[in-house]
Amino acid sequence: MYNTKKNNLKLGFFVAIGVILFILGIYYIGSQVNIFSKKFQVSAVFADISGLKVGNNARFSGINIGTVSKVQIINDSLVKVDLSIQENVRQFIRKDSKIEIGSEGLMGNKIIKIYTGSINAPIIEEGDFLETIEVVQIDKILRQLHSSSTNTVTITKNVAEITDKINRGEGAFGKIFADESLANNLSLIAKRTAVLTENFSEISKKISKEEGTIGMLLSDTLFAKKLYQVGENLQRSTENLAILTDQVNNGKGLLGELFTDTTFISGLNRAGKNLGYTTERTKILSDNLVNITDEITDGQGLITKLIYDTAFADSVEIAVYNINQGAKEVEEAASVVKRNWLIRLFSKKDKKK
Amino acid sequence: MKLNIKKIFSKKAANENQDEFDFSRFKNIERFLNEIGGLSRFAGNFFCELFRPPYEHKEFLKQSYNIGLSTLPLIGITAFIMGLVLTLQSRPVMVEFGAESWLPGMVSVSIVREIGPVITALICAGKIGSGIGAELGSMRVTEQIDAMDVSGTNPMNYLVVTRVLATTFMIPILVFYSDAISFFGTYVAVNLHGFISFPLFINQAFDSLHYYDLFPATIKTYFFGFAIGIISCYKGYYSENGTEGVGKAANSAVVISSLAIFIIDLIAVQLSEIIHIFSM
Questions:
Q1: Is the pLDDT confidence value at B81 over 90?
Q2: Rounded distance, CA B40 to CA B72, Å?
Q3: Start-to-end CA span in chain B (Å)
Q4: Does residue B19 lie in a domain region?
Q5: Which of B173, B202, B276, B279 is the mutation pick for testing A, counting most A CBs within 10 A?
Q6: Which residues, numbered 19 to 78 in chain B, qualify as contacts with chain A under a Cβ-Cβ cut-off of 8 Å?
Q7: Is this prediction's pTM over 0.90?
Q8: Is A12 an interface residue toward B (CB < 8 Å)?
Q9: Rounded Cα distance, B234 and B156, in Å
Q10: Cystine design at A38: which of A87, A250, A271, B206 (Cβ 3.0–4.6 Å)?
Q11: What pLDDT does B12 receive?
């Protein structure tokens, strides 16, 4: 007996679950292609889309954010691809973002990769065109691979020739492997290098012990300060020198006039010429003096006698003494004369006049 | 004119009876064409009765219950095994190509597009088709249908319309169940040889699916249901020759329904491909 009420309930449950399963299927498929989220359109133009189809995913940082909504040939060399991108990722895509066609693995579907742009660039808008990165073609890679393999053959051939020469002891590398003297020299170099490194080690030890100038430079703060002071002084000196040279360039001061004032230079020339003339005259004078002194040293003339002849000097001294005595007597005689009345009379008349 | 036909078509007939043309060789073709014609007329009657009251709601719900809910356990077991076996059979090849991670996607596409609808429809053709054929056939040979007709009840409306509508609407729902249970079978099979989380499995399975996989597959299941219902009802409704005829009606209902499923599937695949190409 068919229990209508109970069976209808079961049937309703059965149908409801079936419909829910169908709706879930629609929803899951829709969520994979982002059919239920708000979207905006952007475009890109490629020379070759390498089999990209409507419905292929668009990825940003590895996340599916949209799909290819339209593929359209613009002309004989360009294909326009329209993308439908989720509205909630618009804020991350900039106007200078770049777009590339990639692949999901070796055998996977084609995908669109969107690369992030610069932070300062404005956010992308509806209908904008993104800059494209050209697709790397497999046949192009194969061509390059072929070229590389050809080069590799040449390289291996050359390497084989080089190794043959090395085995025969030809060339520098051949000598390295075959020549014993070279090996000895290398050994010597190694020994000297060891010594050198030992010296370097000692130097570094001294430096670490704050010995020597470099040691002081690295560790002594006072020395460093002094050095800094020297540097500052040097800087000031160079600044002053710069000011000085500026002034010289501007024609200020003596040196400036020297370098810039032409009249001063001509005056200086004249002074130089005069100095030359003076030095010539001085030279003649000095020659004459030399002759005079020669004559004096030879014992000729009055001056020689004055210098070298003691008897003549004594007689001159006596003569001077006698002259002094004579002068005194004349002075006494003159005072006697002044006191005479006759003379005094004449002197009064003169005073009245 | 008569002589020309004899010469061309039948040497045996010419030998046996020189005056009359024997159409015995064309009996099968004639029968086939009769079946097509009868089925078309029966379908036409169905559509005429479909919109003509009274509407037999209770009978429709009863048939829906019998066709839908009572078939679910069979469909469930079959779908689970189908998903499990399909995954286990596909796995070695996928592993060989290093594409094991594509297994959920590949199996899900196979189930949703083809295997789920067709296998479910075939099972329903076997269970429901034979049931309808036998039920209506026995009613015919026991003259219950005639009695209904005499008593003023429209047997076409009461018996045929309700059953065809029930198969048309229940088989798609059974296919949804079948797909879901097959996915579960696939999930179990994938986890037999490795580990994959259920969310990842669902993501991978639905990542490969598109609306052009789901909608054509769903639409064709309505045609499968309609074909099973109309063929089974036709075979049962017009069964004859007593109990032997009931058996034949049940048998031919299953055979012709199954054949119709494959023919509809072929047409549906071609149409969905064409629509998909034009929609791109």
A1: yes
A2: 30
A3: 56
A4: no
A5: B173
A6: 58, 61-62, 64-65, 68-69, 72
A7: no
A8: no
A9: 10
A10: A87
A11: 53
CA distances, A295 to each of A285, A300, A302, A306 (Å): 15, 6, 11, 13
* A159 CA: distance to closest CA in chain B (Å): 39
Q: Kindly list the distances between the CA atom of residue A118 and the CA atoms of A5, A40, A95, A96, B259, in Å, as whole numbers in the listed order.
A: 67, 21, 9, 7, 63
Phi, then psi, of A100 in degrees rounded to 5: -145, 150
Contact B179 A25 (CB under 8 A): yes
Residue B15 has pLDDT above 60, yes or no: no
A14, A15, A29 member nearest B211 (Cβ):
A29
ipTM rounded to 2 decimals: 0.71
Chain A residues close to B180, C-beta within 8 Å:
21
Q: Do A15 and B68 touch (CB under 8 A)?
A: yes
Q: Please name every residue paired with A85 in a beta bridge, in sequence order, or none if there are none.
A: A40, A66
Lowest model confidence (mean pLDDT) among A211-220, B124-133, B213-222: A211-220
Taking residue B160's Cβ as centre, other Cβ atoms within 10 Å add up to 27
Residue numbers in B near A7 (CB within 8 A)? 61-62, 65, 69
Structural contact between residues A43 and A128, judged by C-beta atoms closer than 8 angstroms: yes
Whole-number pLDDT of residue B3: 46
Q: Answer whether residue B18 is part of any domain.
A: no
Half-sphere exposure of A128 (CA within 13 A, CB side): 18
Residue A14 distance to chain B (closest CA, Å)? 7
Please give the residue of chain A at the shortest CA–CA distance from B178: A18
Whether cis (ω within 30° of 0) applies to the bond prior to B172 is no
Pick from B163, B128, B170: which is nearest to B145 by CA? B163
- Which of helix, strand or coil describes residue B54? coil
Domain of B188, in residue numbers? 57-279
In a domain, B43, yes or no: no
What is the arithmetic mean of pLDDT over A163-184?
78
